[in-house]
Every structure is written in C-alpha cells, then in structure tokens.
Predict the structure.
Amino acid sequence: MAARVVDWAEQERRLSEHVSVLVGDANGGYPSGNSVLVRGAGEAVIIDPSVTVVAKGGAPVRVDAMITSHGHEDHLPGTGLFTEARVHVHEADRFVHEEPSHMVAAYHLVGDAREEFRQSILTEFNFAARPDAEGFHDGHVWSLGGVEVEAVHLPGHTAGHSGFRISEGVFFLSDIDLTGFGPYYGDTWSSLDDFENSLIKVRDEEADYYVTFHQKGVIEGRERFLEMVDAYHAVIHRRHTNMLEFLSEPRTIAEMVAHRFVYRPHVEMSFCDSIEGRTAELHVARMLERGEAVEVEPGRYRAA
Ligand SMILES: [Zn+2]
C-alpha cells in the first residue's frame, strides 16, 4: 500500500514550528494512539503511525521514515502503509519486525488466543514485516533539517521501549502513558525493575509538551507532568502492597491470577490471565529478593 498525503484538519494538533500530533480516534484509546509528525527541511518522519493514520490513508506530508517506539501492534500499523519509508526501531525490539509470530511469542499467549492475535496483527493492525528495519540505540539523533529527534531508551514496558526528545520542547513518552491503569509490564520481555528505573530517568526530562500515545495525549508543562508521573509510579507500589496483603496466607501464582491485581475482576479478555500471571511473578520475585515473602513449599508464597 502506498501512503497518500492527507489533510488531517482538526485532528492534527500543531505543537511547534516543525512538530505536530496526529490525534488518534477516541483520543488515542487502544487500538488507536497519538502519532507524532516531525517535518524537517530535509526529511519528515512519523513516530508510531496508528490505525487512525492507516484509516485516513496517510499523513499530512510525505514521510521519509517511520520511527517506532517499541514492538507492540498498536504502534506498528504504519508498517503496512508507509512501505516506501525507512523503519527505525530500538535494537532490542527489532526482531518483532522480522515476522508476525515474533510479537505473538513476546505476549506468551496460549491456545486459541495465540492464533486470534496473530490474525488481528495482520488485519486490524495492518502489520507488515520489515526485515530491513534499522536498529538504533539510546542517544541516536535524527537531524531532519532545522529540527532534531533523539532516542531515549526507556525499557521495562518492552526491552527496547524508547521515548523521543524532540527539539522545540517536545518529549514523546509513548507507553509510559500516565493513565490511571498504571504501568504495563506483563509481557515475557517486560521488566518491573527497568520500568521503575525508566520512570525515575524520564522525570528529569525538561519539556513544554509531553506526548503520550494513549488517552492522556498531550500534557502541558513540567509541573503537571511530574504530578502525573508520580501518581503513575505509585500504582506499582499499590499493586505490591495489595499482593503482600493477599500473601498473609500462603498462595500460589494461580490464586493471585484469579484474585486479579492488574485488571478489575469483571474484565474478560483472553490475555488478562497471562498478564496477571506475569505481573504477579515479577512482584513475587521482588518480594523474595527483599525478604518480604518466603516460598513455604514449591510454588506457594507467604508474606514474611
Ligand atoms: Zn506498548
């Protein structure tokens, strides 16, 4: 599919001379998201082209490259649209671009959910493999002519998850999305420790606008940003405390999954259990390491 040049009208929000946000449907709620367009004098790049960009058939200008913040389906629909543009992704997430099954494996889905998800990546999310995707590392700079984009590695959500420091006072946070749901670290390649370190690191970013991929969209001003990061970070501590309380009696990971600490009990989606399980495992590992809990018999844990 070749991308057209499309007028985005009121769904394009200009933040500065060269930078604008292409607001996704439903304010960037999943499955969509908020993409960032950077128009340099030399090149134009689009960061995380969403399903809304695909539905519209293109960006407001011709793009030379797409930069992806990490290898999740909702950030990659542009792969099937901007087929003539270069693709850049952090080296640690590059394998996702090789073929659709690699992303499925990272979510460790089981049974029917696996094939269903593989199909939805290709249809709903318009994913096209790009084995030629170029890997970048922390600190990589794209000089586009009068404006620059710098990669800031913020792992945890995925191993290669990255934010982007854009000149003109814009910082793209991607899936450090500052929602009430809290941080997501439920994949096989997620890390709780890395996510927390990334939250501490990103707190130092000085910008006028902080852009998240999902519902919170554009956050104006550093003060508001700091409040939101701290509230978001507190969700990790709340989950940890709730789990420790639950372990006042010996429990297994399966019992923790059934109790639900991430999703509310009434949410029924095929992937909830695997995400609850992965999240519980990470918190229990942290408890054991800190001496907050002990393994009373194989696979059963109790608060110390
Ligand atoms: Zn993600």
Remarks:
- The radius of gyration is 20 Å.
